[in-house]
Design brief:
Glycosyltransferase; disordered N terminus; Beta-galactosidase, Chain A, domain 5
Length: 709
């Protein structure tokens, strides 16, 4: 029985972002249309700590809006908007008055007018400003609130505060301040305020400039919420020299964006005083600590050093579940899903607390991040200090699985919480081969892989700490899970590139959910599949149903319910493609890996190397246009920005083993490539690959060796 679309109650729609210009310096960002004007529409505004400080900042010259001619990013945190102001009686078609607005996330903007003509101009300049001080959750679900009353503060005397407009509401406060330049007339009112310069005389070849600061915060200020970092980025900045400029530019742009997405944990720091930094999930909707997303970003950047992993692990360890709480879905040992300044409604009936634990995958991923950081050289003191948290996390995984009748890691969401609790977490994330929604409780395939990988990795770490009995218990549990997985998750295929594929999930019964999806690509590097299983999965990932030509589709185009612009039902996710490439390379399926990697790198050129969270899954043809970003996708987004390093590492097949002091470096293709600035065990090293495929690693730490197998 299907419900008619006409019978559904109307609801506000999430703002689209496909043509929005973002600049970000976490936890702040600014968003606007391409002309730079803030008109209070959609997600436009200046934000800080999930609070919109200003949603309108509109410039008028002689009661007209300037005519936009260009927008130029000056870095992830800053953008310049250029416009012109023309006169009907001029004898030239050339613009003679140029307006530049340089906007900086977390600060404000600078407005410059340049008279490049030969005639003196007299102008009336006005900036109209307003805000609703809305929370990001309200903005995301399309809620419109009336503007708040504005108070004007004109300067009075030389010692007075600068001219300013202020807003105060029950949930926040904001201030727009003129910090330098000519003093304006100031006017506040019930719906906003204005800054006006009524008689600007601008001679030929002269400039006029004013600087504005946008400040404010939530009321009350959230305790322990992540803050802007003071220290530099905690990773090395590699130099990539390659015949393939796509790979070089994807890595470079990704690191710029990750720099802007950094946050620091105010609750603690390392013993040497270094900040515990991590990567926010994405701008604008998820500019905070997200367990799964932040962990994956740190995993992908491990070849550049372990400091980001350390900061991410500690930020999550301090917030690890301690008690059983139904509303927060907290449990002892469980790792946080997301951290917000306050509880909020997120649309679709979601009511989430500020500390929310509704994620089934963040907990095993936490364990694996510690294990992989150990292999990459995280100091023993840090490993040993974090080990108890990893053991509590693994205990949650084992205990949760033991309560399941099928012995699987399954999620049971509460009413009002996230319905699906892994990376595909939208309302309709899980559909069968007929396109029908499948409801939880569900055991997702990649989550079982994460649990298996975490158990095996932690067993190796415990064995290295002379805890052989505990290690063997984990290995036994992992082997049992591997057998249950083999029995329950494989589905015979009537047609396709291989005789079987892995189900996206197993319901209760147990019933496998049919229909090929990208989820099975994340299994390859976990070890839960045998050699034949890896071969079958590789064939599906490279087949036209899942490989779009621009990357890996989240759902095969050959089954009902496929939608190239569905959030999880056919779109291409940047990080998902990169993880699949990583797994294909690790299992020796280089041909299939290169099919997906080539598509992803070609897509990167179409997006200016700032990869969106996800983009359209339409098939690529010789004359097809560039792929379209999902219209509400975050950009920049953490694990998308980190995917360039992940692909680079995958193509080199970099895998360290600290127990054997060995580094595998086995290139997936004979690509002429040199990478300097990788970090292993605290030492910088380089990897060089010749056009014939010969690989050398000349600067390994003492006692380490390079393995080519």
């Amino acid at each position: 029985m299907f419900e008619s679309a006409d019978s559904l109650a109307p609801r506000a729609l999430q703002p689209l972002l496909h043509d929005v210009v973002m600049c970000v310096a976490a936890p702040a960002f600014a968003a606007s249309a391409r002309d730079g004007q803030l008109r209070g529409d959609r997600a436009e505004g200046f934000y800080d700590h999930d609070r919109r400080l200003l949603h309108t900042l509109c410039l008028f010259l002689d009661d007209r809006e300037p005519e936009p001619i260009g927008v130029q990013p000056l870095g992830p945190h800053q953008v310049r908007f250029t416009a012109v102001h023309r006169y009907h009686r001029d004898r030239t078609d050339d613009p003679t008055l140029i307006i530049e607005r340089v906007r900086t996330a977390g600060e404000g903007e600078t407005l410059t007018l340049r008279n490049v003509g030969t005639v003196e101009r007299t102008l009336r300049i006005e900036l109209a400003a307003a805000t609703d001080l809305a929370g990001i959750a309200d903005v995301k679900r399309g809620q419109h609130r009336p503007p708040l009353a504005c108070t004007g503060h004109p300067p009075e005397g030389e010692q007075a505060l600068p001219a300013a407009l202020t807003w105060t509401g029950p949930t926040g406060h904001a201030r727009l301040t003129v910090t330098s330049g000519p003093v304006p007339e100031v006017s506040g009112g019930p719906e906003g305020g204005t800054l006006t310069w009524p008689h600007l005389v601008l001679p030929p070849h002269e400039s006029w400039q004013v600087r504005l600061a946008v400040t404010g915060r939530a009321v009350p200020e959230p305790s322990g919420h992540p803050v802007a970092p003071h220290a530099p980025a905690p990773w090395s900045r590699p130099t990539v020299v390659s015949d393939d400029v796509r790979l070089r530019d994807l890595v470079r742009q990704g690191l710029w964006d990750l720099d802007a997405l950094r946050l620091a944990d105010p609750l603690g720091a390392a013993g040497d005083g270094a900040e515990d930094q991590f990567i926010a999930a994405g701008c604008p909707w998820y500019l905070t600590l997200f367990g799964r997303d932040s962990i994956w970003s740190a995993r992908m950047l491990l070849p550049l050093g372990t400091d980001l992993a350390r900061g991410t692990l500690w930020a999550l360890a301090r917030r690890q579940g301690r008690v059983s709480d139904v509303f927060r879905e907290e449990a002892p040992g469980r790792i946080l899903h997301e951290l917000r300044p306050a509880a909020a409604r997120h649309g679709h009936g979601l009511l989430l607390p500020s500390h929310y634990y509704g994620s089934v995958d963040a907990t095993p991923l936490f364990v694996t991040l510690l294990v992989e950081a150990w292999h990459w050289g995280l100091p023993d003191t840090e490993v040993d200090a974090l080990l108890p948290y990893a053991e509590r996390a693994m205990a949650w995984v084992v205990e949760t699985s033991s309560r399941d009748e099928d012995g699987l890691l399954r999620y049971y969401p509460r009413a009002g919480g996230l319905r699906h609790q892994a990376w595909k977490d939208s309302e309709d994330a899980v559909r069968d081969a007929e396109g029908r929604r499948v409801e939880p409780p569900l055991a997702l395939c990649e989550v079982q892989g994460y649990a298996y990988e975490a158990a095996c990795g932690l067993a190796t770490l415990l064995a290295a700490r002379d805890r052989a009995d505990d290690a063997q218990k984990l290995r036994n549990w992992a082997e049992g899970l591997r057998k249950r997985f083999a029995d329950l998750f494989w589905i015979p295929a009537r047609t396709g590139p291989a005789p079987r594929y892995v189900a996206i999930a197993v319901g209760q019964g147990p019933t496998a959910v049919s229909g090929p999806t990208s989820n099975m690509g994340q299994l390859l590097s976990t070890g839960i599949l045998d050699e034949a299983g890896c071969r079958d999965v590789a064939a599906w990932l490279a087949s036209p149903g899942l490989a779009s030509g621009w990357g890996l589709r989240s759902r095969s185009k050959d089954v009902p319910g496929f939608n190239p612009l569905s959030y999880h039902g056919g779109s291409v996710w940047t990080h998902d493609t990169a993880i699949a490439v990583r797994g294909l390379c690790a299992t020796g399926h280089h041909h299939e890996a290169l099919i997906l990697a080539e598509g992803l790198l070609d897509a990167a050129t179409r997006f200016g190397y700032r990869m969106p969270e996800l983009y359209g899954g339409d098939a690529r043809t010789p004359d097809s246009p560039a792929p379209l970003a999902y219209p509400a996708a975050c950009r920049p987004q953490g694990w998308s920005a980190a995917s360039g390093v992940a692909v680079l590492s995958a193509l080199l097949d970099l895998r360290p083993d600290i127990t054997r002091r060995s580094l595998v470096a086995r290139p997936a293709a004979p690509l002429a490539l040199r990478v300097e600035g990788l970090v292993l065990a605290g030492q910088r090293l380089s990897v060089a690959v010749t056009a014939s495929g010969e690989c050398t690693v000349p600067e390994l730490p003492e006692g380490w060796r390079h393995e080519r197998r």
